[in-house]
Specification:
The chain has 209 residues and is α/β, with parallel strands linked by helices. The chain has a single domain, classed as Rossmann fold. Strands 3-2-1-4-5-6 form a six-stranded parallel β-sheet, sandwiched between helices. The longest helix is centred in the N-terminal third of the chain and has 14 residues. The protein is globular and about 50 Å long. The N and C termini lie far apart (46 Å). Its EC number is 2.7.7.18. Catalyzes the reversible adenylation of nicotinate mononucleotide (NaMN) to nicotinic acid adenine dinucleotide (NaAD). It catalyses: nicotinate beta-D-ribonucleotide + ATP + H(+) = deamido-NAD(+) + diphosphate.
């Protein structure tokens, strides 16, 4: 009976904040595996400035020496808009019936959940874990607050295979892909904000310049 985490994103580029969130989620939830899933075309963001294959390669480089972190290219293979509903449904179908799937999402994205495709059905396929940090600015909309009423639990009290939502406190790291891209475009250093091998790949292919 495996406990599988899923953390999606454009990863444009992947950075230390993503990796810390993943590692801390593995430890808090006692996950057997956490899958990082790069989006092909995220429906709620602009199209990534770097193509999917290069973003996938950077994620593979970032996780190659980190236990329990794996890369899942399911969304890239679909070659179309990356709807979380479709991804969770496909993963749940592929997993053994006794496995439990945990979908991990950041606070800002979670507060926008009512705008997602078939959002109220996501819990049919997983538990949702929401990453929190100090000084959160986004507010939970009323529709989502009502949805949470009988589903929100402490993360260590989650039972069953699907249907619950919990919050996870994470180490506050003020790192963003946007800031990294801006620094690179301005010729500023981004050392220690992302893995060295990812930075080497970015420099080799002259990305974000």
């Amino acid at each position: 009976m495996a406990r599988i985490g899923l953390l999606g994103g454009t990863f444009n580029p992947i950075h230390i904040g993503h990796l810390r969130s993943a590692i801390e989620s593995i430890e808090l939830l006692s996950l057997d595996e956490l899958r990082l899933t790069p989006n092909f075309l995220p429906p709620h963001r602009e199209n990534p400035s770097v193509d999917a294959e290069k973003r996938l390669t950077m994620v593979k480089l970032a996780v190659e020496k980190i236990p329990k972190l794996v890369v899942d290219d399911l969304e890239l293979k679909r070659n179309k808009l990356s709807y979380t509903f479709d991804t969770l449904k496909a993963l749940q179908k592929a997993l053994p019936i006794e496995d439990t799937l945990f979908f991990i999402v950041g606070w800002d994205a979670f507060c926008g959940l009512p705008t997602w495709h078939r959002w109220q059905e996501l819990l049919n396929y997983c538990h949702i874990l929401v990453l929190q940090r100090p000084h959160l600015s986004a507010k939970i909309p009323h529709e989502l607050a009502i949805f949470l009423q009988d589903k929100l639990v402490d993360y260590n009290q989650i039972t069953g295979r699907v249907g619950k939502i919990a919050y996870l406190q994470q180490t506050p790291l003020d790192i963003s892909s946007t800031k990294i891209r801006t620094n690179l475009a301005q010729g500023k250093s981004v050392q220690f904000l992302l893995p060295d091998n990812v930075l080497d790949y970015i420099n080799l292919h002259k990305l974000y310049q």
